[in-house]
């Protein structure tokens, strides 16, 4: 199941706050996420085309493929991590909703806020570690252990960027109710 609006709150579709700063931040992040989703969709199609080419090349022409698997993995890593903020913005991540019917609306708001806070702490740690890995890979010139030798900084930067955007999305979702607006 996925989180949606709380049972006592109407579903909101536009900017959720009368606070101009919060509304502007939400619109900017939604715009950024919309562009990333389009690019991620292209990356998924490219990854499937690359893998299909790889399979056909091996089966029909018995040609070795050195770059296809890594290229597809890099595209999939980018699509997965970079779209995490979009999914969070839609409350599309899987959540266990066994307690929603048992708790009062106020307790559900507190529960959701605490889950967002714990998620922010975890994602911030993940983003920080991803940025340190990306920096080490860049400085040390780390590459994959294949003939293609693709730079490892590429997937690490994609992971770090995606997790940073996810942190911004979660932080925005934590701050919106504090500004007096309805939680999405």
Key terms:
single chain, mainly alpha, about 180 residues
Describe this structure in words.
This protein is mainly alpha-helical and 184 residues long. The chain is 68% helix and 0% strand. It has 5 helices and no strands. It has helices spanning 20-61, 68-82, 84-89, 105-140, 153-178. α1 packs antiparallel against α5 (153-178). The longest helix has 42 residues, at 20-61. It is elongated. Residues 6-15 have low confidence and may be disordered.
Task: Provide a short characterization of the protein structure.
The protein is mainly alpha-helical and 184 residues long. Helix content is 68%, strand content 0%.
Question: Number of helix segments?
Answer: 5
Query: Structural class given helices, strands, pairing?
Result: mainly alpha
Q: Based on Cα principal axes, name the global outline.
A: elongated
Q: Give the DSSP E fraction (strand runs of 2 or more residues).
A: under 5%
Cα Rg: 20 Å
Span of the ends, CA to CA: 16 Å
Helical residue percent band:
55-70%
Encode the helix/strand succession as letters.
HHHHH
How many β-strand stretches? Answer: 0
Poorly predicted spans: 6-15
Write down the overall mean pLDDT.
Answer: 86
Largest sheet, strands/sense/barrel: none
């Amino acid at each position: 199941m996925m989180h949606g609006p709380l049972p006592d709150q109407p579903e909101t579709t536009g900017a959720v706050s009368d606070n101009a700063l919060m509304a502007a931040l939400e619109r900017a992040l939604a715009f950024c996420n919309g562009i990333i989703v389009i690019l991620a969709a292209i990356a998924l199609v490219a990854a499937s085309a690359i893998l299909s080419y790889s399979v056909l090349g091996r089966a029909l022409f018995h040609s070795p493929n050195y770059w296809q698997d890594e290229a597809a993995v890099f595209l999939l890593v980018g699509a997965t991590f970079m779209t995490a903020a979009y999914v969070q913005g839609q409350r599309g991540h899987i959540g266990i909703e066994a307690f929603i019917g048992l708790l009062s609306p106020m307790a559900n708001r507190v529960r959701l806020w605490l889950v967002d806070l714990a998620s922010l702490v975890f994602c911030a740690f993940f983003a920080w570690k991803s940025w340190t890995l990306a920096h080490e890979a860049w400085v040390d010139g780390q590459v994959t252990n294949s003939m293609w030798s693709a730079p490892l900084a590429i997937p690490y930067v994609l992971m770090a960027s995606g997790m940073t955007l996810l942190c911004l999305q979660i932080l925005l979702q934590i701050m919106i109710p504090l500004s007096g607006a309805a939680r999405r």
